[in-house]
Amino acid sequence: MKIKAYAKVNIFLKITGHKDGYHTLLSRFVKVNNLYDEIEFVEAKCDKFTIEGCEFVETKSNTIYKAFIALNNYCGDLDLLEFFYNHKVVVTKNIPSQAGLGGGSSDGAYFMLLANRVCNLGLDIDTLVKIGSTIGADFPFFIYNYNSANVSGFGEIVEKFDEPPLELEIFTPSDISCDTTLVYKRFKRDFLDKIRLSSFIGWDTISSKEILEMINNPIEANDLYKSALVEYPKLQNYQKDGWFFSGSGSSFFRIML
């Protein structure tokens, strides 16, 4: 009972507005097929929901725990509760935290997929997406498990984009962890009133490889890079030609030739 929880990168990420306290966006999400955590259900007698491998995160703040609670609240399925009295969740972490790669959301989303299957909850993908979107904006992309997709709105609109799988190289600075909330707050404060929606019309129809070749500029590709640089100036020390910035950071990526 094991599943791979894949990382993602944002080929481009453009902020389209701000509504009800949250930013809206248009982004191309791409699964990183060679970077993933592993979520495993292991037999064990547990007096409470137990996660091993994420000791650096308090249980109630863990997205896996939040996904379990959300599933339980939606289903009220006693089999789900019984299962996790007799099994613990073991996580093998490979995706860096606070790196713009979606590691926490990926873990929670793939946990939902595995629990739905193993516990015979019978929930369809759209229902899982609806539940997951209440936990985090990246959950829908991971639950759909697409290799590539255009993501918009608050992250809840996910449209599959057909293109060959990309081989990606990832670099994450070991001394910088980016706080997503801080980066978004900085964007709202300093850059929100400067967005130009006309500047990226049609990007959602172009292949990821062509977009990066066309732009060739991490600041133009990812609106959050500007605000991340303000909050974490040391990022500039790691910027190299041909590399792009993922999400709210701190990871850089490039397509391998």
Shape type: globular
Largest sheet: 6 strands, mixed
Under the CATH scheme, the architecture of the largest domain is: 2-Layer Sandwich
Which CATH C-level class of the largest domain is it? Answer: Alpha Beta
The end-to-end span amounts to 35 Å
Explained architecture:
The structure is a single chain. A hairpin with a 2-residue loop joins β1 and β2 (22-43). The chain has 2 domains: 2-160, Ribosomal Protein S5, domain 2, CATH 3.30.230.10; 168-255. The two termini are 35 Å apart. By secondary structure, the protein is of the alpha+beta class. The mean pLDDT is 96. It has helices at 63-75, 78-83, 103-118, 125-132, 139-144, 180-190, 208-215, 218-221, 223-231, and strands spanning 2-19, 22-43, 51-52, 87-92, 148-153, 157-160, 168-171, 244-245, 252-255. The strands form 2 sheets. Strands 1, 2, 3, 4, 5 and 6 form a 6-stranded mixed sheet that branches. It has a 3-stranded antiparallel sheet with strand order 7-9-8. The protein is globular and about 55 Å long. α1 packs parallel to α3 and α6 crosses α9 (223-231).
